[in-house]
Task: structure prediction
Amino acid sequence: MNGPGRIGRDETATLRFTFDGRSLCARPGDTLAAALLANGVGLVARSFKYHRPRGIMAAGVEEPNALVTVGEGGRTEPNTRATDVFVYEGMVARSQNRWPSLAFDLGAVNALAAPVLAAGFYYKTFFGPPARWMVYEKLIRRAAGLGKPPTLADPDRHQHRAAFCDVLVVGGGPAGLAAADDAARGGARVILVEQDRALGGCALRGDGEMPTSDAALRAAGVRILTRTTASGVWDHGFVTLAERLVEPGEAPPPGQPAQRLWHVRAERIVLATGAIERPVTFAGNDRPGVMLSQAVRTYIRRFDVLPGRRVVIATNNDDAYRTAEAVAAAGGEVVAILDSRPDFTEVARAAKERFRVHTNAFPHSTKGRSGRLRSIGADIWTERHSFDADLLAMSGGFTPVVHLHSQAGGKLDWRADIQAFVPGASAQAITSVGGAAGEVAPIGTNAVHLPHPKHSFVDFQNDVTAADIDLAWQEGYRSVEHLKRYTTLGMATDQGKTSNMAALARLASVAGVDIPQAGLTTFRAPFTPLALGALAGPDGGGHAAPRRRLALHDRHAALAPVWQPLGYWDRPRAYPAAGESLNDAAIREARAVRTSAGIIDVSTLAKFAVSGPDAAALLEMVCATGVAKLGVGRGRYTFMLRDDGMVMDDGTVWRLDETRWLLTSSTGGADRMEAHLSYVHRVLAPHLRVSVVAQQEHFAGIALAGPLAPTILAGLTGQAPPAHMGLAEASIAAVRVLILAASYSGERAFEIYAPGAIAGPVWDALDRATCAQGGCPYGLEALEFLRIEKGHVVIGAEADGRTTPHDLGLGRMLRKAGGYVGAQALGRPALSAPDRLQLVGLETAEASLPEGAMLVARAGAPVEGHVTSAAQRVLGQGGIALGLLAGGRARLGDRLIAASPTRGRHVAVTVTQPLFYDPEGERYRD
Amino acid sequence: MTDRDVSVSMEPAGEVIALDLWSGADAPDLCGKIALLRVEPRRWWLLDAREADLTAMIGARGAWAPIGGGLVRATLTGPGWRSLLMVAGLFDAEDPAFGTGAVAATVIHHVPVRIAVVGETSCDVYCAASYAPTLAGLWGSVIGRERVSLSRELPSATIGSE
Amino acid sequence: MMRIDCPHCGPRAQSEFGYERTLDSIVTLDMPADEAMARLYARANPRGLDDELWRHGLGCRQWIVLRRHRVTHEIVGVAAFDPAILS
Amino acid sequence: MTRYSALALLRAGLTGQRHWPRAWRDPSPRPNYEVIVIGGGGHGLATAYYLAKVHGIRNVAVLERGWIGGGNTGRNTTIVRSNYRLPALHNLFDFALGLWEGMSDELNYNVMFSPRGALFLGHSDADMTALAQRGDALRCDGIDAELMTANQLRELVPLLDMSPAARFPIHGGLMQPRGGTARHDAVAWGYARAADRLGVDIIQNCEVTGFTVAGGRVTGVETTRGAIGAGRVGICVAGNSGPVAALAGIRLPIEAQTLQAFVTEPVKPMIDTVIMSQSLHCYISQSDKGGIVLGGDPDQFPSYAQRGLPPRIAQAAAEAIALVPALSRLRMVRCWAGTTDMSFDGSPIISALPVDGLYLNGGWCYGGFKATPGSGYTYAHLLATGAAHPLAAPFALDRFATGATIDETGVGFMPQFH
Result:
């Protein structure tokens, strides 16, 4: 018998799964890698560039080779490490990056072209126009990539959860368990995370003992999270933990999330993340059957799987001798131990009693066929040897997992005895223990003999060889960052976990410097790849933003309106009758307002109660218009500027009594205005005795507009309605309401405010009364028609953040004395340049003109402005619009083209005043 | 996980008044038996207070405005409330020091909230009414829809699948 | 994701806070126009410490001042905003 | 100098690729240069190249603190487009786009400029109007822009969620067919190699620590490798403009901020164009290697940490999944951050500074990569002639004092919100 297989009889292999359609069995607790080996499967994958056959090299998350696709449909997870997925009943796994099959992959022809496809070859060829590159690129893209992506939406949810602790211990091996135990005894809040399914770390492969148990720690109050990876350490002890609640591709129980991303804030972090064994660099070191030494032990002792029967061990340290013991104990044959060190260590000497141990021995090449290793060539002292073997267990030393320490800003120190970086000074309250702190076997450092650099792989997944590193150096890509980017070294899905140190060693040797001088690339989050769905958490699946519900939502919904998104809100855009188009509905609604009456939900307007003896003083700092002289019971249009003099927002300000005011402003600017009021009050004028309370949602608002509005309101309230820009309190449907006689539509109108929680009956009463008079509810589209006709500007359209009050024709409303935010900016010369974009009206005989179109004198002429908002006349014929036009106020009567090349429309327009309806405001009078 | 040991009921917060004081006085000293929450250093929410009563209590020491019309109170009942608040949260509701009577303002799943601890097995979470369906959706997904009830006065249409 | 020790609320996640501007770019309304624009449009922008105005907008909504290192993100001082620093 | 070509590559294959020379020399600084460009990113290297190529000024040094291309050139999401709304911006960026189209041949270095189209999605009628306005502004200035219907998008990007019930339903889009991506590192390397060939000294590991000024005129720089004299000095260090200008006692309307990006594990082709959104804050493209490259909003507070906020990544991931639901199970393999030079109107500064002979190219916010050749070309013009190139003239520093700001988003003087 040859190749990998289960040790002893496999009666407990009860889980069924498939690999490339082949039905196989696994034991509960098997990783896919263990199960494949148990079933004698050695060839698992094809490499990225040369499509070389690859097997399983590691037993943990550092695996560079054995990437497979797991799961089906929307749960498909490509590029899953076979060593980092536990088999579950019915699991479907597939190999990837091969065609037509894993065993016979036509892509392997790339290997023949390897002499040309050296590092960075694509920078030197494929010239010509971009269109030609696009042709090459298409082929390259198809050949690149690894697994096929899913095409369906993810059916599962992913959760985000916060946690806080005194001590976060990362790593559930002996060192981590001891740290957690210590911390818990001190009464601290402790979280222990382990990326594996089981605690134990190296103890699971028989190295060391567990100092305490899962149960004991839980009893001490430790929160233990297994199958959870600390993916990143950020500022101030913030750590993201990715918890897999089910395996890749596995369906979670109904209603349960598949993954959970923890946001942990830790006072102190203990990193017990262990060390990663390094491969040895030699020709053919990537072949199936070449495996890390500790991985071999893991498969034997944890999974009862012997990855090969005839085993050669290549090492530069004593640790690998334990693998020889394990192999022998499991019934395998240790063919030879190739120790690169010239002298026998104590351990080697002891091993010599049982095994064939060679010193000064280096593997130089491998031979294999059909995905099986057959023999290993080695240089021993000055002689060439060949060993028949189906497994090479290699150990090139150990690299402490310093990723999280380094991500957190910690320094790294060089340790020559282990040829690796270890954690130095921490930038945060972080300590490393155990293997992560450098407690690993020292290694021999005699020069590595490398006769075939072109076939000696350093970064297995990206097919970067020692020769590629040499070439990059030769071409001047000498900074380690240039080297990495030029060769793609360390940029594969394993992020160089097994390759970084070997690459640095090679770089240092060509540069003739020590490794620390060669430099080190940055460690970046995540430690292991992290699903976007888990990152997105409850925001995934299309919910990247909450929906805010109007207090009157159900009233509108009953009328089946067309909804319009506005920030997080959805508001009715129009209420079409059956078969009616949006535009027809909007025109019908707008005409109702012009001829009888309409009601519209204006609840989302920002509202602020500004109260106190200094309320007027605050308002005059915020508002650029006169406010303080407003009489009690009166209101006024106002606008606010930013520090740079641009119009920030507009609204109305009302004096409810001597010291109580109500300020309204735009929906979209509500949060910004809340912050601005707070800024002006608390930062610029904290001495003012004034209270600002946001009442945006306290009041639902319903505007009643139209010539019949006063009659309707009087009928409902039993009292005379307030005059235009006056206010009153009244009752409608037994609800106390505040009535502000403001108009946005150009008709006599009232904004009626009632507490949101009890506004329903008010809407119902207004709706009934309005409909009884031939009116109707209207939506934002009709409102837009009405306000454009009346020339009211909208924040975001006309006031686009680049317009001053002068640009909008509001200059005359500015308070001469200044003293408001933005006043100091208005004197800048460019703000009074004659060619500034200024607000104008535009009209056309055509039915409409394209909103957003450019204004030009004739086709092809320079752009002079644009259409900001367009509509059709509500009662008359033809299209009207507001626009911003260079020097516009001086150009009344000019004839221009509203040009929209993207929509194929060019409409002749005439420049007018930005006011198309009732210029004298006569309709506001009763 | 214990966050299933909790149920939620959401209803309009009723008459709530925001009170700002600019004198050195503190609201509890002025407002007698009115239940209140300190939500900012100089702002209190008066629960079930009547504006008419305030003039005499407060005088010129501050000003107030009603906010209850747009406020929803979610009452979380059961020992799992702390755990539930950690889902999509930022604030350490599991801190034992966050005890009865404590009030904290924070954000849960994009929704600005104020959390008031009522007792070891109960807390109130206040949010703007427009966001109530979002929170209800989130919580429903964690503890089961059947454990989250929304009062009929709240907009109920299509609770998201958050 | 910094932890900011709000003087009113205690330590909270950065997500609850918003950066407004540096202290030296606050424009008071009594400043001459030239000075106002100079403050608005010029920042020290150091690779080191600066004084910044933040707001705990999704918490207690108060304005606070951070003295913060812009490379390490170390917060060496945090205080409630004090208007005296403007005069 | 060996010219790169397919033939040369094949020939090198026969000789084990052993004969490729260094792509650029590693010279020691000379005592004096006609022009010193501070900053060996794409912009600085392009500036040096055009100084030599267009203006015949070859006595030029590029001083780089670390390794060339190591700043924002190597940290962006590689998107190239010119479809800005405001004329000053789209004219400058479209000039750059023209240079991108010929860059690989011009530099004899394949920068893999891939005009696969840059698509903005619209999620409402209001979005579509805003996109039409942008498109109309572009088309009236002769720049390509096409409105696309939902049906066209279904064909172009089959994995888009076109469901009307989506949180952000996709109504259509605005496409710039000439937009696309390029290989970011190659841009720095290509310009470096071409500039080096023309005699420019590219000096790495050389940090500028001060300016020498005599009679109000700059005469050179102090560096970690000694003082170097220069007739003119151009700062070109976007991300670090503030600290470098401060060495000359100048405060700028710029604040440094972190912008993050991230990439997934490589998968077979799934997205063939660059996807952005009018009202969301993420951008999506697939690299030639197969990784999905994603970016989002800046971190909105001042920082040089080159380390970002996890919630920003979460937001970009959520929005990307909302647009392309099949992304949910792909895994982020790496995230990184750059330091952006956020200006106070969101537009770059290409300008003389108040010290004679000292110039600034900076303030690129998060839009610098796509401008690289145009930025270098117009900055070289300014450094060579002392007068602004017409396309760069609107981007003078004094625009903040005069009020002639160029504010694409309209958010004003708060750099964190651009």
About this structure: Chain B touches chain A through 46 residues (CB under 8 Å). Confidence is low (pLDDT under 50) at residues 157-162 of chain B. Chain B has two domains: 7-13+70-150, 16-68.
